[in-house]
Specification:
Structural class of chain B: mainly alpha
Distance between the termini of chain A: 37 Å
Number of helices of chain B: 11
Radius of gyration of chain A: 23 Å
Radius of gyration of chain B: 23 Å
Order of helices and strands of chain A: HHEEEHHHHHHHHHHH
Largest interface: A-B, 87 and 96 residues
CATH topology of the largest domain in chain B: MetI-like fold
Strand content of chain B: under 5%
Oligomer: heterodimer
Number of strands of chain A: 3
Number of domains of chain B: 2
Strand order of the largest sheet of chain A: 1-3-2
CATH class of the largest domain in chain B: Mainly Alpha
Largest sheet of chain B: none
Number of strands of chain B: 0
Mean pLDDT of chain B: 89
Helix content of chain B: over 70%
Number of domains of chain A: 2
Strand content of chain A: under 5%
């Protein structure tokens, strides 16, 4: 019996090696780069990829001592939170109506909302830029933030509609009926029955939007007219423009810590996660 | 009744907003104006001809497609093997591998991107086609694994054992029984991988050779650094083509889904 299973298990070895080499070790490398600094040859503790380095924590103090960097962090999280809230406010009624609608048989209407996701993300953002130009949103530089915000909501809205829809669809009708039978007004039923029951969908929508909008700088670069910098862009600049991989890794490590902390916290709130939840069930 | 009209118009409004940029580019792909917003009296397929004749842009499109297919293929083979391996492993290995699999999905793309740039430089092939391919496989492989595992769970395990009892080797049993059973999961994982690879900008920009372009990096360079599409009007035609292909794909897909659910319904 165990002999038979062994051969199936073995199939996973190449994948495990791949994960180790290109997911786990690279993350450790980020930590290594974050805590080291380039030094003149001769005074090094060791070398990475032929570069003389020694241990240093000054990368972190360098990053946090710059006011501009702190501002970028605030802008990133601010934009992400506002985007998430607006997306939820727009998407919840959509998901609710779709889940209750008779016209949405087999999710046909839903597909219309998901379809834009199949168009290249950068192209979609560019199309939004054309539209914003078209309606005159680039006449003044003061629109930069609003334009970025519109782009973010536009690009991530389907990611919010989908998890909300699948959760609302699963809510047992009889709860709402029971609540109505017991004399609750429709809005009361909504606030104290339907909304709490759709919490898992809200949590997974938030987790799908909050992080990418904090770090994915394509939208702010394309729509922000050079006036909106988010934290992902800082990493890119350090890496591709300044060629300071140590400083870039430092910011990445800060992000990593935030990501895993928030995963840990949100994991506490949603006891049992649906295996298929997340981006995978969008398509 | 009022409720119905209200909800209907809300849905229509959101749909309109979602499709407004797409329709704008679509309509203007048939107009020869240099930039959107200025009507040109000339209408027709000139932009499509321009797209076809733009060697640089056509090469970019082919690069993007080849990369997506190759990365998607590698991710599908490796990921399917991984999923089977994980599923039949001990509980502890199973749990650890599941957590590791999700890392690239949870992680910020820019962090994944630099981690791959670092490791590939360490191995001596930073910024090459190899690093680009590895980046795309890392990005897409979790989606393959997570598409295949549910199908493994649905599979009747006795089939595999029965074939072994009838004298098949384990390898043969996998190809004869397991693969056909989980094929829908493999296919959807493959399509998902391709779609995500086509979409990617950040990992591509960190790992690609400097002269290599994909649709994403091309459009980013045209729009983020410049102003509008006026530099490359042919992009409007490309956008329209992608849009039409996607609609066709979704129509075919939902048609198949519909037939499937009808067949299941009649059973």
């Amino acid at each position: 019996m165990s002999g038979l299973k062994f051969s199936r298990k073995q199939l996973g070895i190449p994948y495990a090696v791949f994960l180790l080499a290109f997911v786990v070790v690279p993350l450790l490398l980020i930590i290594l780069y974050a805590f080291t600094k380039k030094v003149p040859a001769g005074s090094e503790t060791f070398t990475i990829a032929g570069e003389p380095v020694s241990f240093a924590v000054s990368n972190f103090s360098d990053f946090f001592s710059k006011q501009a960097n702190i501002r970028v962090l605030f802008v990133s999280f601010g934009l992400a939170i506002i985007t998430t809230v607006i997306s939820l406010l727009i998407a919840y009624p959509v998901a609710y109506i779709l889940a209750k609608s008779k016209f949405n048989k087999g999710g046909v209407l839903l597909i219309l909302f998901i379809l834009p996701l199949w168009i290249n993300f950068v192209l979609r953002t560019a199309a939004m830029k054309e539209l914003l130009y078209f309606i005159g949103m680039y006449k003044s530089n003061s629109f930069s933030f609003v334009n970025t915000l519109i782009g973010m909501v536009y690009d991530y809205l389907p990611f919010v509609i989908m998890p909300l829809y699948s959760v609302i669809l699963k809510i047992d009708k009889s709860y709402a009926e029971a609540s109505a039978d017991l004399g609750a007004k429709p809005w009361k039923t909504f606030v104290s029955v339907t909304l709490p029951l759709s919490m898992p969908g809200i949590v997974s929508a938030v987790s799908m939007v909050l992080l990418p909008t904090t770090t994915s700088y394509v939208i702010s670069d394309t729509l922000g007219n050079g006036n909106v910098t988010i934290v992902g862009k800082l990493i890119e600049t350090q890496f591709l423009t300044m060629h300071n991989w140590h400083a870039g890794s430092t910011i990445a490590l800060v992000l990593l810590v935030i990501i895993f902390l928030s995963m840990f916290l949100s994991g506490k709130f949603t006891e049992e996660k649906d295996e298929s939840a997340g981006r995978a069930n969008l398509w | 009744m009022v409720k119905k009209i209200l909800s209907g118009s809300y849905i229509t409004l959101v749909l309109f907003l979602l499709y407004a940029p797409i329709l704008l580019l679509f309509v203007y792909s048939f107009n020869m104006s240099r930039e959107i917003g200025i009507w040109s009296p000339e209408w027709g397929f000139d932009l499509y001809v321009k797209l076809w004749n733009n060697a640089d842009l056509m090469e970019t499109v082919i690069n993007t497609l080849v990369l997506a297919f190759v990365a998607g293929f590698i991710a599908t083979v490796l990921g399917t093997m991984g999923a089977i391996g994980i599923y039949y492993s001990s509980r502890r290995v199973n749990k650890t591998m599941n957590e590791l699999t999700k890392i690239p999905m949870i992680n910020a793309e820019v962090v994944t991107a630099i981690s791959i740039a670092l490791i590939c430089t360490m191995f001596g092939f930073g910024r090459s086609y190899a690093s680009l391919l590895i980046g795309h496989v890392v990005l897409t492989i979790p989606f393959v694994v997570l598409s295949v595992i549910p199908k493994l769970k649905q599979m009747d395990n006795n089939l595999y054992e029965a074939v072994l009892d009838l004298g098949a080797t384990p390898t043969k049993a996998i190809f004869l029984i397991v693969i056909p059973e989980i094929l829908p999961g493999i296919i959807s994982g493959f399509l998902l991988a391709i779609n995500i690879s086509l979409d990617d900008y950040i990992i591509t920009s960190f790992t690609k050779p400097s002269t290599f372009k994909t649709i994403s990096t091309y459009v980013y360079d045209a729009y983020a650094k410049g102003g509008k599409s006026s530099s490359v009007p042919a992009l409007r035609a490309l956008f329209a083509i992608i849009f039409v292909v996607m609609i066709a794909y979704v129509v075919i897909y939902s048609f198949i889904q519909n037939r499937k659910s009808k067949r299941e319904g009649s059973r």
